[in-house]
Amino acid sequence: KNIVILISGRGSNMEAIVRALEAGQIAGARIAAVVANRADAGGLAFAQQHGIATAVLDHKAFASREAFDAALMALIDGHAPDLVVLAGFMRVLTAGFVTHYLGRLINIHPSLLPSFPGLHTHARALQAGVKLHGATVHFVTAELDCGPIIIQAAVPVHDEDDEASLSARVLAQEHRIYPQAISWFVAGRISLRDGRACVANAV
Ligand code: GRF
């Protein structure tokens, strides 16, 4: 299966996925390309060092969101993807883009959805005083951070936490559950039923 990963920055989730692949934990998959919308995305160097094709498509070079997404789709489709993985890709995608990849487009979000969709999730979790926080891998649908949930990981929130300590605790879990979700997808174990993602037991 061909996987295309989209990043905007540091790319630590992409790195975790690549390392899981290299360790044989995602059988039957290859990373066809890592695409960034910023030339300064830190993760690009790691991908290149690991022999993965990279591309940069700068959204600022396009007059509209639609024009950027059309070019992005053409770039991605050139790699015949079975799965498109958003890994810290900081662009809201158009309905046309999301529809085109429906069922093969996944994202990781740093909260226990449906709590705290959107930005600044760790600060908002601390502000709300929740005792559990975490991360969610979900299919992407037109509504932001609302698609069918594939896997979640919860972490405790400690009284002495700040944004940095809490985000680090969540990030460690992100690096575990994103490769897990991808291995399930590649193995054909995830199905959508009534708008929910179900994971079949391994045979
Ligand atoms: C992660 O916290 C992810 O959940 C969010 O953006 C961050 C990306 O980090 N969507 P990285 O680029 O994978 O290191």
Automatic annotation (TrEMBL):
Q: What pathway, per the record?
A: Purine metabolism; IMP biosynthesis via de novo pathway; N(2)-formyl-N(1)-(5-phospho-D-ribosyl)glycinamide from N(1)-(5-phospho-D-ribosyl)glycinamide (10-formyl THF route): step 1/1
In this chain, the site described as Raises pKa of active site His is at 145
Q: Which InterPro entries match?
A: Formyl_transf_N, Formyl_transf_N_sf, GART, GART_AS
Which enzyme class, named as a word?
transferase
The UniProt entry annotates the active site at 109
Positions of the Formyl transferase N-terminal domain? 1-182
EC code: 2.1.2.2
Q: Which GO terms describe its molecular function?
A: phosphoribosylglycinamide formyltransferase activity
What residues form the membrane-spanning segments?
none
Kindly indicate whether the keyword Transport belongs to this entry. Answer: no
Q: Does the keyword Transmembrane apply?
A: no
Binding positions (N(1)-(5-phospho-beta-D-ribosyl)glycinamide): 11-13
- Name the chemical reaction catalysed here: N(1)-(5-phospho-beta-D-ribosyl)glycinamide + (6R)-10-formyltetrahydrofolate = N(2)-formyl-N(1)-(5-phospho-beta-D-ribosyl)glycinamide + (6S)-5,6,7,8-tetrahydrofolate + H(+)
The family database entries (Gene3D superfamilies) matched by this protein are listed as: Formyl transferase, N-terminal domain
Alphabetically ordered keywords of this record: Purine biosynthesis, Transferase
- Residues annotated as binding (6R)-10-formyltetrahydrofolate: 65, 107
* UniProt function note: Catalyzes the transfer of a formyl group from 10-formyltetrahydrofolate to 5-phospho-ribosyl-glycinamide (GAR), producing 5-phospho-ribosyl-N-formylglycinamide (FGAR) and tetrahydrofolate.
Recorded family membership = Belongs to the GART family.
Concerning PANTHER family, the annotation shows:
PHOSPHORIBOSYLGLYCINAMIDE FORMYLTRANSFERASE
* UniProt-listed HAMAP family: PurN
Descriptive protein name: Phosphoribosylglycinamide formyltransferase
* Name of the gene this protein is made from: purN
